[in-house]
C-alpha cells in the first residue's frame, strides 16, 4: 500500500474529525465490552466446574458413545417406536388445535380494535403473558399431577402453553387488520358480531391458519421433549433408552425424530403456501 | 353520481350465473373436504394420544385446585400473607438462578462464537466451496433440530451430572440456530465491498474480515441477544434432566408436592425471564439504533 502524504492526511483529519479523532471513551468502548464479556465467560467456566480434565474425559466418552451409536438399529422395538412417534404427532396436532380454538375468542378480548377499553384488555394480556412465561415442560409436570402419566397430559400441556402464545399472536393479527372492511359492514347495518364475522375474520383467518401450521410444526419438536418428563410420545422412549445406555436405539430414535420433523416441515410449508396463495388469488 | 348499469340479456346471464354457482360449489366442496380431512386427523390423533374426556372432567377440579394449593402455605394461610415463609429458600434459589443465567450466558457465547466461525462457510455468497457449504449446513441443521434437552440427556451421561452438560447442550443448540440466522444475514449483505477488497489481492479471510464483517456485526449481536433470552428459559428446565440450574429444585418441588415452593420458584423464574427480556430488548434497540446511524 502506498502511504498518503502527510499533507493529504491532515486535510482529511480536519474534514472527518469523527473518524480520525474519536474521543477515548468511544474508542475504548468496544474493547471494554469484549474484555467484560470474556471475563464473565471465564468466571462462568470456573464457577460451573469446567475443569479441562473433565472436558477431555467427557469428550472421549462422547466419542465412544458416538461410535456405539453406529449403526442405528431399533432392535425388535420398531413397532413400539412407530406407535410412540404417532403418539407424538397426535399430541402436537391435538394440542395445537385445542390451543387455537380456545385462544381465538380470548384474543378478540385482547385486541385493541375490538375492546377499546384498556382496563378490560390489560388483565387479559397479563394473563396470557404469565401463561406464556411458564415452559411447556413445567406445564407437562403440572398436568401429570392432574390427569396422570401419559400422552393426554402432553396434549393438555401443549394446549395450555400455546394458548398463551396464540392469544398474543392472534390479537396482534386482529389489530393489524384493515378497518375499512369492518366499517363497510357497519355502514350496511351489520351488528358487532357481523363486523367480526364478515369484516374481520376473512382478513385474519389466513394469517391465523399460517401461524397454527407453524406451531404444529414447532410443537412436533416440543412434543418429543415432553415425553422426557413422562407425558407420552417418543421422548419417553428416548429418555428410557438413554438411561439404559442402548445407544443404537437412541440414534435410531433421534433419526426418526429428525425425519418426522422434516416431513412435517415439508407438509406444513406446502399447506401454508396453499393458504397464502389462495388469499392472493381471492 | 349516477351511472347506467347495463343488464346483460337473459341467455348470457344464465350461463354466467351457472358458472358462478359452479365456482362457489367447488369452493364449498373443497372447504368441506378439507374440514372433513382435518376432523378425521383430529379423531385419529385423539385416539392415538389416549384422550380421555372422563379423566379430564373427573380431575379438572384438581387442575384448578392445584393453583389454589400452590398459593397456600403449609400452615394453610395464603402465600402473600407471609413472604418470609413463602420464599424461605431464597438464598439457595437465588444462587441456582444465578447458575441458570450463567449457564445460558456461557452457552450462548460459546454457541455464538462457533456459529460465527461456521456461518461464512454456510452462506451462499461467501462459501469457498459448495461441498463444504453442504456439510456445514447439514451439521447446523442437525444441531438445530435435535432438542437441547436431548443433547443434555446424552451429555449428562458423558460429562457427568452438573451444569457442564447444560452449558454444552445449550452451546450446541445455539450454534445450530445462530449459524443459520447469521448465514442469512451474510447472504443479505452487499457484495460490492467484497469485490473491492478482493480486487486489492486480499485472501478469503481478509475479504470476510474487511468487507462482510462491518456490515453484519450489529445483526449478529442482535440475534445473539435474542438467543440469550431464549436460552435463559431453556436453561431453567435443563435441571429436569440433571444438567444444572434451578430446574432441579423445581422438578423436586413439583414431584414431591411442596406446593408453596412450586409457586415461589415459578415466580422467581418468570420475574427473571421478564427482566432479562426487558434488558436485552433495551440493548437490542440501542444496537439497532447505532447500526442504523453508522
TrEMBL record, chain A:
Gene Ontology MF terms in the entry: ABC-type phosphonate transporter activity
Entry-linked InterPro entries: MetI-like (IPR000515), MetI-like_sf (IPR035906), PhnE/PtxC (IPR005769)
PROSITE patterns documented for this protein: ABC_TM1
Subcellular location: Cell membrane
UniProt keywords, alphabetically: Membrane, Transmembrane, Transmembrane helix, Transport
Transmembrane helix recorded as keyword: yes
Membrane topology qualifier: Multi-pass membrane protein
ABC transmembrane type-1 domain span: 85-268
Domain of life: Bacteria
Family: Belongs to the binding-protein-dependent transport system permease family.
Name of the featured protein: Phosphonate ABC transporter, permease protein PhnE
Organism expressing this protein natively: Bradyrhizobium archetypum
From TrEMBL, chain B:
Parts of the chain that traverse the membrane: 31-49, 102-121, 142-172, 262-283
Top-rank lineage group of the source organism: Bacteria
CDD domains: TM_PBP2
GO terms for MF: ABC-type phosphonate transporter activity
Gene3D superfamilies per UniProt: MetI-like
Principal subcellular localisation of the protein: membrane
Ranges for domain ABC transmembrane type-1: 97-280
Membrane topology, as annotated: Multi-pass membrane protein
Keywords: Cell membrane, Membrane, Transmembrane, Transmembrane helix, Transport
Pfam families recorded: BPD_transp_1
One Gene Ontology CC term in the entry: plasma membrane
Subcellular localization: Cell membrane
InterPro entries reported in the protein's UniProt record: MetI-like, MetI-like_sf, PhnE/PtxC
Family recorded in the similarity comment: Belongs to the binding-protein-dependent transport system permease family.
PANTHER family in the cross-refs: ABC TRANSPORT SYSTEM PERMEASE PROTEIN P69, PHOSPHONATES TRANSPORT SYSTEM PERMEASE PROTEIN
Protein name in UniProt: Phosphonate ABC transporter, permease protein PhnE
Species per Swiss-Prot/TrEMBL record: Bradyrhizobium archetypum
Amino acid at each position: 500500500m502506498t502511504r498518503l502524504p502527510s499533507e493529504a492526511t491532515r486535510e482529511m483529519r480536519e474534514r472527518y474529525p469523527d473518524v480520525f479523532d474519536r474521543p477515548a471513551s468511544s474508542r475504548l468502548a468496544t474493547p471494554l465490552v469484549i474484555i467484560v464479556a470474556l471475563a464473565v465467560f471465564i468466571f462462568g467456566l470456573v464457577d460451573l466446574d469446567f475443569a479441562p480434565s473433565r472436558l477431555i474425559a467427557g469428550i472421549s466418552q462422547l466419542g465412544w458413545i458416538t461410535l456405539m451409536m453406529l449403526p442405528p438399529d431399533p432392535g425388535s422395538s420398531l413397532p413400539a417406536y412407530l406407535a410412540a412417534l404417532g403418539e407424538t404427532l397426535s399430541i402436537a396436532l391435538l394440542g395445537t388445535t385445542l390451543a387455537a380454538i380456545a385462544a381465538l375468542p380470548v384474543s378478540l378480548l385482547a385486541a385493541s380494535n375490538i375492546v377499546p377499553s384498556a382496563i378490560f384488555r390489560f388483565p387479559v394480556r397479563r394473563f396470557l403473558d404469565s401463561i406464556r412465561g411458564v415452559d411447556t415442560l413445567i406445564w407437562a409436570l403440572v398436568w401429570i399431577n392432574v390427569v396422570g402419566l401419559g400422552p393426554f397430559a402432553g396434549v393438555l400441556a401443549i394446549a395450555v402453553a400455546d394458548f398463551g402464545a396464540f392469544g398474543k399472536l392472534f390479537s396482534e393479527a386482529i389489530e393489524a387488520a384493515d378497518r375499512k372492511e369492518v366499517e363497510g359492514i357497519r355502514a350496511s347495518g351489520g351488528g358487532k358480531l357481523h363486523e367480526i364475522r364478515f369484516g374481520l375474520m376473512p382478513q385474519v383467518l389466513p394469517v391465523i391458519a399460517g401461524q397454527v401450521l407453524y406451531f404444529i410444526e414447532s410443537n412436533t419438536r416440543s412434543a418429543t421433549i415432553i415425553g422426557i418428563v413422562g407425558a407420552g410420545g417418543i421422548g419417553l422412549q428416548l429418555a428410557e433408552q438413554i438411561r439404559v445406555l442402548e445407544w443404537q436405539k437412541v440414534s435410531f430414535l433421534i433419526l426418526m425424530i429428525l425425519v418426522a420433523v422434516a416431513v412435517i416441515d415439508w407438509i406444513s410449508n406446502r399447506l401454508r403456501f396453499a393458504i397464502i396463495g389462495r388469499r392472493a388469488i381471492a | 353520481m349516477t351511472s347506467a348499469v347495463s343488464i346483460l340479456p337473459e341467455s348470457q346471464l344464465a350461463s354466467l350465473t351457472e358458472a358462478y354457482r359452479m365456482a362457489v360449489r367447488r369452493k364449498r366442496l373443497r372447504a368441506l373436504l378439507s374440514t372433513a380431512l382435518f376432523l378425521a386427523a383430529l379423531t385419529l390423533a385423539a385416539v392415538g394420544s389416549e384422550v380421555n374426556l372422563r379423566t379430564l372432567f373427573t380431575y379438572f377440579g384438581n387442575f384448578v385446585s392445584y393453583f389454589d394449593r400452590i398459593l397456600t402455605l403449609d400452615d394453610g394461610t395464603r402465600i402473600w400473607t407471609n413472604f418470609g415463609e413463602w420464599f424461605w429458600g431464597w438464598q439457595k434459589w437465588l444462587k441456582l438462578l444465578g447458575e441458570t443465567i450463567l449457564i445460558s450466558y456461557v452457552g450462548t457465547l460459546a454457541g455464538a462464537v462457533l456459529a460465527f466461525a461456521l456461518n461464512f462457510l454456510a452462506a451462499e455468497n461467501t462459501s469457498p466451496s459448495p461441498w463444504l457449504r453442504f456439510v456445514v449446513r447439514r451439521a447446523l441443521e442437525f444441531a438445530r433440530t435435535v432438542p437441547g434437552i436431548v443433547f443434555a440427556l446424552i451429555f449428562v451421561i458423558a460429562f457427568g451430572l452438573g451444569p457442564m452438560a447444560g452449558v454444552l447442550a445449550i452451546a450446541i443448540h445455539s450454534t445450530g440456530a445462530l449459524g443459520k440466522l447469521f448465514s442469512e444475514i451474510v447472504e443479505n449483505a452487499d457484495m460490492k465491498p467484497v469485490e473491492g477488497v478482493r480486487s486489492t489481492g486480499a485472501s478469503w479471510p481478509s475479504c470476510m474480515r474487511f468487507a462482510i464483517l462491518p456490515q453484519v456485526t450489529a445483526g449478529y449481536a442482535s440475534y445473539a441477544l435474542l438467543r440469550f433470552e431464549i436460552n435463559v428459559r431453556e436453561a431453567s428446565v435443563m435441571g429436569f434432566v440433571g444438567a444444572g440450574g434451578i430446574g432441579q429444585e423445581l422438578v423436586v418441588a413439583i414431584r414431591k408436592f411442596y406446593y408453596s415452593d412450586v409457586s415461589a420458584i415459578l415466580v422467581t423464574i418468570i420475574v427473571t425471564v421478564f427482566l432479562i427480556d426487558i434488558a436485552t430488548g433495551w440493548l437490542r434497540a440501542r444496537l439497532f439504533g447505532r447500526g442504523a446511524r453508522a
